[in-house]
Amino acid sequence: MQVRPCANADEMRAAFAPIWHYFGQNAPSADIMRSFERVMPPERVHAAFEGERAVAGSGAFAFDLTVPGGQVNAAGLTVVGVLPTHRRRGLLRAMMRSQIDAARARGEPVMVFWPSEDTIYGQFGCGMASMMAEMDLPREHATFYEAVDAPGHARLVALAEAEPAVREIYARVARETPGMYARSSAWWQDRLLNDQEWKRRGGGALQCAVLDVGEPSAYALYRVNQMLEHGSGVGHTAVVEAMGVSPEATHAIWRFLFGIDWMARVKTYLLSVDHPLLLSIAAPRRLNFRLREGIWIRLIDVGAALSARSYASGDAIVVEVADEFCPWNAGRWRVARGGAAKTDAPAELACEVASLGCVYLGGFSFAELARAMRMRELRDGAIAQADALFRTDRKPWCPEIF
Prior knowledge:
By secondary structure, the protein is α+β, with helices and mostly antiparallel strands.
């Protein structure tokens, strides 16, 4: 079998078929493929071919990923799948090899993704980099801790007209939130605002509300999923995405969502773990705030990746990195405000490269990794020094599964 980039749109569609199989579907439709083709060229899709037939596939979006204090070019791994007839033949490993080598050649020092199975990717040097939260709030408990005057007013916007109003709000939030990435106009139109029937999964049509405070300052994409029992509404508002450029605007857009009549509950499943709702709702227990893992990170080029982010202290730390899958990363790295570089200085910490993925965006600390037996302190005080160096004021958040 041969693993290689796809040469055209037809091969790209064939490469998507394995993951579609696991969603209980045949090969993706022409409409779905058109939406992918606008944001991912065929050469960024790699497939394993048995003769002319694709039996495994994977893709990688081109992202400008926000990291603490900056941005980095990243490969957004997606649609990874191997047909059940060809499992246990090393095809996933071969595709990861192919995608990582291609990303390195393109100058993308980081890979970011949502794993479908969390036990698979550690073997390739990938680390869990963030957490996310689900929320299921009964509307009768949607009372805020303090009565705050919500600024501005909300208006409903047709999806065809929504992009100009929402893209700058998103861009402002994304620039300061690790784990988010820049969205092109094609991404907005084909990934977010194109309300294809398969995205609804039996729910209501996608709606867009924009909050104006002199200018567009917050927005919400949501679905009204109506259900009736004995004449009373027992449905829920499903929030796809909601954010604002200030605490006041964020508060106001959520107050709008909580106020949608005839809905029994408000649900969402991609909140940041430090979302203000956890402290601004009077009865936080009623949020049913449940955590699960979020995005994962693979540092393809440790030096370039660590040099792309900022650091909170003027100290330096030397880390001994083990990396079997990408051996060019193995060795001692001195990390400081000026960047990261190989060094012969004595190591103060030691870890696998996957553990660096865990701390890269600020989702986890060196101390947490040490308590989990995934970080070794070789000099007293090095853990605390590294945590001061990597400290961030905001937890990483990715509001969209790609």
